[in-house]
Write a structure and sequence with these properties.
Layout lengths: L1 E8 L1 H5 L3 H11 L2 E8 L3 H7 L9 H8 L4 E9 L1 H9 L12 H5 L8 E3 L3 H11 L5
Length: 136
Amino acid sequence: MSERTFVIIKPDAVRRGLAGAVLSRYEAKGLRIVALDQRVVDAELADQHYAEHREQPWYPPLRDFITSGPLIALVLEGDGAIDAVRTLNGATDGRRAAPGSVRGDYSLSNRENLVHASDSPESSAREIALWFPGLT
């Protein structure tokens, strides 16, 4: 069943020149790019995106990181896109992510872990509406 998912290629991946490598993995899997935008986000959008984490003691450094430079926000579409992207990305902590995944191959961090992906149809719908309000 075709579905859409939201992805962020985070500032560390953009800074390191890994955006193309990450995008090519999604496309090679058979996912289609529906929307893509490179931008620098402000604290307000970061707070909306990470609303459920705002009260956590580790949130301020996360907000500083996600607003630290250009990122790429995108919407991907394909059969089982949410699970497919999460598998391609690997475990959140790059030190524990499987080799062959984005984080397993390129990350040694839990916070600066290159990518974000929606974890459910509900979060996907919320995040797509927040980042790409004109997309239906």
